[in-house]
Design goal:
With about 375 residues, this protein is α/β, with parallel strands linked by helices. About 25% of the residues lie in helices and about 25% in strands. It has helices at about 70-75, 100, 120-130, 140-145, 160-170, 190-205, 215-220, 240-245, 260-270, 290-300, 315-325, and strands at about 25-40, 40-55, 60-65, 85-90, 95, 105-110, 175-180, 210-215, 225-230, 235-240, 250-255, 270-275, 280-285, 305-310. Strand 9 and strand 10 (about 235-240) form a beta hairpin. Helix 4 (about 140-145) packs across helix 5 (about 160-170). The two termini are about 35 Å apart. The protein binds adenosine-5'-triphosphate and magnesium ion.
């Protein structure tokens, strides 16, 4: 493939060694994905022109509230449901057209897989390995990987053990891409920790993990990159730290001896105040970055001097709420005009890492108006 223009020496320029930046690739690329369901009340766009890019290697969080289209998107990626529009590439293969080329490299849990309740986890996996043509020796390896002995009967498994066995099953063929739809749903903190730990282990071994969740705080702890969706549309994508940094300081801890007077002063200036313990106030400004100097000046003008002033680091939860500005972001209840489509990527271009991402630049499209773009 020809190098991008900026890496090509200009005509007549002296020949110099050009160090090509590392090539970054995507495990999953989807553009303009759309899925409309017919319901009793009419048509409903569950996924509405969604773009999704999952870099190879690491953990990619796929985040959105209940009903925002995560499962529908994952089902389209896996060829379980046909997309009405859009293009999907998995490891450079057009899906679903060339799904056979890549399906062996993908392991997924979308629904709770069925196992024989009267058989042990190990026996269940042996049967499954035979059915899918995975080597029998993988059974012990994957049970070890998910930390299960596998000797108890499946019917006696806890929810966490069932989920770990489901993950073990996806690993039988040693796939490069793992897609887990809300894998920690219903688990207790210990179970959640184990699944997280397992996903981290997979990423360390060079696998790509695409994990969906509606609990942002949970994914923030493990994801390298994220895609945030609402009502079937992209709200933000990119590196988790970048997304958090882009949020600025949305709140600050302010310590002041006369906290009641300080509350009056800051409230009058438009700040939102939440009293914390020990005369500390949590000060925020809806949807705006906080200028800490303004807070100190306003208070000092009233003879109030701060003993503590600490920005509160944003978390994905607050970024998400900020992005969605309190709108209810489940799929919309009625179908409106179809938004404009961006052309599919043609032909596939690999770009240098520093230009695209791993992760790509933070992309925060304008907040959708839910009425469709012109
Ligand atoms: N088979 C279906 N027929 C009709 N509507 C559907 C179907 N599957 C999903 N939907 C609707 O599409 C929307 C998106 O659903 P989806 O399950 O993809 O969301 P989700 O983000 O996975 O939600 P959750 O976090 O609750 O799992 C919802 O409004 C849902 O009711
Ligand atoms: Mg779902």
């Amino acid at each position: 493939m020809a190098p991008p223009d900026e890496l090509r020496p200009a005509a007549g320029a002296p020949r110099r060694a050009v160090l090509a930046p590392p090539i970054v690739d995507y495990a999953v690329e989807a553009y303009g994905l759309r899925k409309v369901y017919r319901t009793r009340t009419g048509k409903q766009a569950a996924v509405d022109g969604l773009d999704l890019r999952v870099p190879v290697g690491g953990i990619h969080g796929f985040l959105g509230p209940n009903g925002s289209g995560k499962t529908t998107t994952i089902r389209m990626l896996l060829g379980l449901v046909a997309a009405d529009a859009g293009h999907i590439r998995i490891f450079d293969h057009e899906v679903p057209l060339a799904i056979d080329e890549v399906i062996g490299r993908v392991g997924a849990i979308v629904e709770q897989p069925r196992f024989f309740p009267g058989f042990s986890g190990q026996k269940n996996l042996k049967l499954l390995a035979k059915a899918i043509g995975a080597p029998r020796r993988r059974v012990a390896a994957v049970l070890d990987e998910v930390g299960l002995a596998g000797r108890d009967k499946y019917r006696n498994y806890s929810l966490g053990m069932k989920q770990r066995l489901a993950i073990a099953a996806t690993l039988l063929k040693d796939p490069d891409l793992l897609i887990f739809d809300e894998p920690t749903n219903g688990l207790d903190p210990a179970g959640i920790y184990q699944i997280r730990d397992m996903m981290r282990g997979l990423a360390r071994r060079g696998k790509t993990v695409l994990v969906s969740s509606h609990i942002l705080a949970e994914v923030q702890q493990i994801a390298d990159t994220v895609t945030i969706i609402g009502r079937g549309r992209l709200l933000a994508e990119g590196d988790v730290n970048q997304i958090l940094a882009s949020d600025g300081h949305l709140a600050a801890r302010v310590g002041v001896s006369d906290h009641l007077r300080a509350t009056e002063v800051l409230t009058a200036a438009g700040f939102t105040i939440e009293p914390l313990q020990n005369r500390i106030l949590k000060v925020s400004l809806a949807n705006h970055k906080l200028d800490l100097a303004v807070i100190t000046r306003l208070l000092a003008e009233q003879g109030l001097y701060v003993s503590e002033l600490t920005p509160i680091q944003a978390d994905l939860e607050s970024v998400f709420l900020n992005l969605t500005a309190g709108q209810h972001l489940a799929a919309r209840q009625e179908l409106r005009r179809q938004p404009a489509r961006r052309p599919p990527p043609q032909p596939r271009q690999r770009r240098p890492a520093q230009q695209q991402h791993r992760p790509e630049r933070l992309r925060q499209p304008e907040l959708p108006d839910w009425g469709g773009r012109p």
